[in-house]
Amino acid sequence: MSTTNIASDNPRRSLVVDAARLRRYRIEGMVRYVLMVCAGVSVLTTVGIVVLLLFESLQFFGTVSIVEFVTGTQWAPQNQQYGILPLLCGTLLVTAGAALVAIPLGLGTAIYLSEYATPWIRETVKPALEILAGVPSVVFGYLALIVISPIIRDWVPNADPANAACAAIVVGFMILPTVISLSEDVLRSVPRSLREAGYALGATKFDVTVKVIVPAAMSGIVASFLLAISRAIGETMAVTLAAGGTPRITANPFESIQTMTAYIVEKTGGENAHGTPEYRTIFAVGLTLFVSTMLLNLAAQAILSRVREKYE
Amino acid sequence: MSRWSENTVEDSPVAVGRPTASTEKILRSASELAGSPKKFATTNVNFWYGTHHALHDITLHVPENCVTALIGPSGCGKSTYLRCLNRMNDMIEQTRVEGQILLDGLDIRGPKVDVVDLRKRVGMVFQKSNPFPKSIFENIAYGPRVAGLKSRDRLEQIVERSLVQAALWDEVKDRLNDSALALSGGQQQRLCIARALATDPDVLLMDEPASALDPTSTLRIEDLIFELKENYTIVIVTHNMQQAARVSDQTAFFYEGHLIEAGVTNEVFTNPSKQETEDYITGRFG
């Protein structure tokens, strides 16, 4: 084949822009703006939500003092008692309980899958976890009531029918797939060379796992915990069904409690006249929820960057 | 990329000629080699990765307190052989070993052999330095710690001794708590050598320990190998013929899974008995 043949197939085109080409360039230019609008929609939505939350909350704090809201120990909007602490306590109780269930169980499973399980077991368990992650939260909620609650009441006879422990356990299982799949990913991404270095020094599998692999993956593991915890804080449907619905400050997990999310569900479905302080509580509680999740994410970032500094 | 540009600066002047053994460093003589006890004695070792037959009937003796270099083109089986000596291949699925591998007369594949203790006796340094993402101190203390040592004083002694042996102590003694990942490539590799020495092994296996290093760092590692062989038996895999000639007492040439020739390094390089060896060391292939 000669080079002249190739050249003749590709005649030099004029460099002058004609009308047809101009039209094509205009379309190319428009693509940029269409894509920009796509990105803009989500940004504007975020801004809109924050502005709405702030606006309605400000109105709420126009009638209810912010000090009372933050320090009050009674939450009874129908009686003009607006202390957020009982709801905060409920959320904390459920979240802490869920973390207590999900962190040991999740980390253990992740270590098993990444270090000990045969490929066949791993390939079977991972899709099963996807299914667990796909179970709707309302299903978790009534499973908590009809399965977990009776078990708890067998053990603790004076427990409320729906209680914090019941919700915590079920939320723990809901966030389990997040902990397992993220932790397993970071554990498996620890380079093979580090494992070999450990084994070559006469370490057992347990030594390598606990003293090399887990510490090396710690930043990712912590990130998976924090992500799971922030999911637990925001979890709504299961806690609405399973936690009871009584706002109270308590450390007893066997009492009926209410979380911030569950309160919002209750009020949104209720028949409060728009514009009343009682109606606006949902925005104030929503803002509190938003701020706590955001603080958690910021804390996570801070921890992660410190861990990174240490190891890089 | 041309073959020329792949060679490091120190290789270049002799890259096309026959490598010569170093004259400044004293290599073991043929009679010394023959007189040394056999640290490793391997007989008819065969190895398979799945159905791929990677080693064919390797019979080779590794004399005590000598440096044995394994040379040969990529994929010839030299690293596989090396990893048989501390059973690192056990960790790779679907592999199979046959034959006899004796360490001080004991078959390391025997049913009663504790592979964890074997690896404490037979340390290993890898091609790419692989320090743990921990402090310099913790890297070295890892081996003794997993062996059950808890005394801080004793650990400090071991860390200092190992770093001195690996010629790294003076450079890092004031920053033992810094991350090992902050060290340079050459320092990291010496740290890995120190880490391997900390478990007080008899044998040190080195899989191309200097292939990722610059010429200066490479020379330091080679000097180190010279000093270490007084107390340790060393087996080194290398792609660098000059390196094999400079540091080893015995050289074994592998080709396509077969051991073509093994003998005193000077003999193998100046008067090889097989045509393949001659072709390989003069750079006609590989």
List keywords for this structure.
heterodimer, A: 312 residues, mainly alpha, MetI-like fold, 2 domains, flat, B: alpha/beta, 6-stranded mixed beta sheet, globular
Task: Give an account of the 3D structure.
The complex is a heterodimer of chains A (312) and B (286). Chain A is mainly α and 312 residues long. Helices cover 77% and strands 1% of the residues of chain A. Chain A has two domains: 61 residues; 238 residues, MetI-like fold (Orthogonal Bundle). In chain A, α4 packs parallel to α7. The longest helix of chain A has 45 residues. Chain A is flat. In chain B, α5 packs across α6, α5 runs parallel beside α8 and α6 packs across α8. With 286 residues, chain B is an alpha/beta fold. The N terminus of chain B is likely disordered. Chain B is globular. Classes of the chains: A mainly alpha (312), B alpha/beta (286). At the A-B interface, α8 and α9 of A face α4, α5 and α8 of B.
What general form of chain A does the structure show? flat
Q: How many distinct beta strands of chain B?
A: 10
Question: What is the succession of H and E elements of chain A?
Answer: HHHEEHHHHHHHHHH
The number of helical elements of chain A comes to 13
Largest sheet of chain A: 2 strands, antiparallel
**What strand line-up does the widest sheet of chain A have?**
1-2
Given the C-alpha coordinates, what overall shape of chain B results? Answer: globular
Biggest beta sheet summary of chain B: 6 strands, mixed
Helix and strand content put the structural class of chain B at alpha/beta
Low-confidence stretches of chain A: none
Low-pLDDT residue intervals, each spanning 5 or more residues of chain B:
1-17
CA radius of gyration of chain B is 19 Å
CATH topology description of the largest domain in chain A:
MetI-like fold
State the share of residues found in helices of chain A, binned by percent.
Answer: over 70%
* Through-space gap between termini of chain B: 15 Å
- As an assembly, this protein is heterodimer
**Whole-number total of structural domains of chain A:** 2
Order of helices and strands of chain B: HHEEEHEEHEHHHHEHEHEEHH
Q: How confident overall, as mean pLDDT of chain A?
A: 88
